[in-house]
Amino acid sequence: MAYDQSTDAFVAFERVQKSYDGETLVVKDLNLAMPKGEFLTMLGPSGSGKTTCLMMLAGFETATHGEILLDGKPINNIPPHKRGIGMVFQNYALFPHMTVAENLSFPLEVRKIGKSDREAKIKRALDMVQMGAFGGRRPAQLSGGQQQRIALARALVFEPELVLMDEPLGALDKQLRETLQFEITRLAHELGITVVYVTHDQTEALTMSDRVAVFDDGRIQQLAPPDELYESPQNSFVAQFIGENNTLEGVVKNITDGLAHVQLDSGDIIDCKPVNVSKPGERTKVSIRPERVEYNKDRLSPDAHTLKAEVLEFIYMGDIFRTRLRVAGNDDFVVKTRNAPDQVRLKPGQQIEIGWLPEDCRALDA
Amino acid sequence: MADATQTNAGASGRAPDDASGQAQDSGATGPVLAADGTPLKASLNRALRAQKLRALALIAPLLIFVLVTFIAPIVDMLFRSVENQIVSETLPRTVAELSDWEATSNTLPDDATFDALYYDLFLASEYKNHTRLGSRLNYEQTGMSSMFRRVGRDVGDFGDLYLDQFEDLDERWDEAEPWAALMAHPGYLEDAAEWRESRDADRIDPRDTPAPRFRLAPGIEDLLPKTAQAYTHYAAFMRTEEEETADEDEPWTLVSTMLYEDLMAASAADIAAYDGPMADALQTAHAAAPDFETMTRKAQFLEADDEWGNLDNWATIKVYSPSYTSGYFLTAVDMKLGADGIVSQPEDQQIYGLLFKRTLFMSMVITISCILLGYPVAWLLANLPMRSANLLMILVLLPFWTSLLVRTSAWKVMLQQQGVINDVLVWLGVVADESRLIMINNQFGTIVAMTHILLPFMILPLYSVMQTIQPSYLRAAKSLGATPFTAFWRVYFPQSVPGIGAGSILVFILAIGYYITPEIVGGTSGTFISNRIAYHISSSLNWGLAAALGTILLGAVLILYWAYDRIVGIDNVKLGG
Ligand SMILES: Nc1ncnc2c1ncn2[C@@H]1O[C@H](COP(=O)(O)OP(=O)(O)O)[C@@H](O)[C@H]1O
Ligand SMILES: [Mg+2]
């Protein structure tokens, strides 16, 4: 898919900025284009401006600068109730004085849809979230998960093409969250709706989305499908933020044929893939995923650079072993290995050598 | 549409994450037993009882305080609104005689009744009770107060007629000691002399050690029963009111009158058989009595004040002779107890019904004005940023820090005909100088001033309820396609109703009993029932009527509260989050 062509994008942010107080920019130069039917997640630490972006899209905040396009048309001047965007709030925002069925009926009534039509749509929406039996209840009589299902049904009942969800599962326990994650993605795909989903939970982002926009400091740090995000982080923030990550700091010695030699602060030299370093002398943070580190010498290529390491801790986790090492002065270097019959179990205090494939070791910005 | 979704309940069943506890309601029936075999309920109750007692002990001081200072006065007020012992206590003999007199007979009560009235009123005027009774009966029948006051002055002289004639026979009938010798027990006279001696020597304080208790001479009660009774009353009066002994002063003319009656009734043989002190004087008097000049008591009363010949006055005394009366309540609803049952007050005296209606109506108008003015302010308070909201809150609370009198008087300055608002209107040319608006000393003034004064009581509960309504509800409504007005009306407003309810109850109940503001700016057409209550408490001193009006007001509030509970539901009232 040609994602970045804003011409055929369904939702587009163009150079959008937002400031609440006129002093600091909460959103700095946001550019984003989404095709129809995409499930896009905005992922980022708290305060990074995700909700603000969502609120600008929904129409509850106005952009200080830039343009937001929906289906090719600028919507900056359209009031929220005319945008036809479904929305699910973190605290559900179900109307407490109405029953579940009345809550669902509300968007249909304001659209002046006839009674029989309304009833059919409500029934379908409730069945869709498996809450068909709960139409007569009040929100207060439902559990958190049930309320979230109703909130979802309410956002979908009037058949919007775009649905926004702001940390909808934030208040639920882990198991429930996983069930609902699955259901939300299933529904989104079945109905073919476009979804902008906000979360600060990276697992949620990775498992649910077509693409993830990693937010930090009011900017999108990287916008990519989950696998790319994990395997090829574009900068050290993304590398740190997504999944577990080992960082070593150093200076670029030279770059040849797409291979960079980096001299670590401890003096060791390693081979890396240059991602956003371009010339010798630059400082860099080198990122290696724990499961890509190898300490079984037989499996390393003979010419690979290796580093000396001391085992600090060995944790048996069932499916994997997690070993903490001291590498080049870094005490938090983690190695994850699969629990296989031939796998070596290290002991604290043991001195070993570790290595990796140059393409798994990414030299990022400092 | 709820039906449609409900019928399909069974099929789709419970959602997978239905954590709400429908789990164990199909368990074993029968009472659940605790470990020791007693029913669980009983052992739970036992466990809770100690806790409850401890909690009760904690609040006991407050509970007692409230009971003593709040509940007790209310009970007293309820009691006063029906209590009416003053007539039967002040005129016990008259009330007894009146029991078989009917006002409808169109004749004045018989002589026996007037005799009883004489006796009662003589005592009452000595004890100075007759004016209180007069004022009490005056509430029911105007003119009765002066009737009692006048006769109270004269009743002491009724007996002079007999006293003078006894005196003409024997000087001793006008002296203290011979009377005492005749009536009192010798033992009493000795005790009295001894007590006087101590008192005169300042050895005792008569307030701490009252004079000895009076005792009648032996046999005198059989010989002169009425005289003995009257003299006993006299002696008791001397002892408690004057702090003297009976033989220090000549007795009341009442005693002379009774002596005349006794002598007329006594046989010559009995009188002759008496050989105690004053035996000679008694015999002379007995012989002369039939030739005495006399006058019926009825004639004496009518001579003192011809109102005593008015049947209506007697009817009033009879109607109000029971110890408890519905009279105050009837007056409070513009009716009265007539001789022949309950009748409406004359048209021109019906004021309470009007006042009650006006009080309720104006309280309602004030409540509605408070809602209309307070709602937007509360909304602002709940939605403005913290700093501006705090400032606004101070403005809302400012009236609380200003004296009620000052605030009300300020409205007088604003609203009067030469006041600020009229001046501005005239200056703007909106009204002509000679037709300045009358905005004070009428209902308008009262409504304006009271709305202003009671506004905070509406704003505060509204504010605290609105604060709990999250802004995300409005956003959700708008995102679902509702216009800002629909979002407000269907989502925000229903959630703020509990605040309106709480504020309305507060404002209405405060307004219905408000007093100072209507008094100052209400004129005659803008006063409330409470102003009338205050008048009866402090000016007319008709506490019974004030209590009855207050009781009706209390009843009206309770009925409204009940109606509110039925219509809106009292659990829908929230004073805070
Ligand atoms: N209504 C507002 N007024 C002022 N500042 C706000 C407002 N909403 C959010 N902010 C600020 O904007 C920044 C981004 O907030 P937000 O978009 O809510 O972040 P996120 O949803 O990623 O946690 C935060 O620093 C927050 O304090
Ligand atoms: Mg947020």
Automatic annotation (TrEMBL), chain A:
Keyword annotations? ATP-binding, Cell membrane, Membrane, Nucleotide-binding, Translocase, Transport
Q: Which Gene3D superfamilies match?
A: 2.40.50.100, P-loop containing nucleotide triphosphate hydrolases
Q: Which domain of life is it from?
A: Bacteria
Pfam families named among the record's database cross-references: ABC_tran, TOBE_2
Task: Name all ABC transporter domain ranges.
Answer: 11-242
Q: Catalysed reaction per UniProt?
A: ATP + H2O + polyamine-[polyamine-binding protein]Side 1 = ADP + phosphate + polyamineSide 2 + [polyamine-binding protein]Side 1
Q: Show which residues constitute the signal peptide.
A: none
The family note in this entry says: Belongs to the ABC transporter superfamily. Spermidine/putrescine importer (TC 3.A.1.11.1) family.
Q: What does this protein do?
A: Part of the ABC transporter complex PotABCD involved in spermidine/putrescine import. Responsible for energy coupling to the transport system.
Subunit structure, interactors included:
The complex is composed of two ATP-binding proteins (PotA), two transmembrane proteins (PotB and PotC) and a solute-binding protein (PotD).
This chain belongs to which protein, by name?
A: Spermidine/putrescine import ATP-binding protein PotA
Source organism of the structure: Meridianimarinicoccus roseus
TrEMBL record, chain B:
What keywords were assigned to this record? Cell membrane, Membrane, Transmembrane, Transmembrane helix, Transport
User: What are the residue boundaries of the ABC transmembrane type-1 domain, all occurrences included?
Assistant: 356-564
Q: Which InterPro entries match?
A: MetI-like, MetI-like_sf
State the PROSITE patterns in the record: ABC_TM1
Task: Please give, as recorded in its UniProt entry, the membrane topology of this protein.
Answer: Multi-pass membrane protein
Q: Name one GO cellular component term.
A: plasma membrane
Q: Biological process GO annotation list?
A: transmembrane transport
Task: List the CDD domains.
Answer: TM_PBP2
UniProt lists compositionally biased (Polar residues) regions at: 1-10
Recorded superkingdom: Bacteria
Membrane-spanning segments: 55-75, 360-382, 389-406, 444-465, 497-516, 543-564
**Keyword Transcription among record annotations:** no
Localization, UniProt: Cell membrane
Q: Where is this region: Disordered?
A: 1-32
Q: Chief localization class? A: membrane
The family annotation for this protein states: Belongs to the binding-protein-dependent transport system permease family. CysTW subfamily.
Please report the name of this protein according to its UniProt entry. Answer: ABC transporter permease
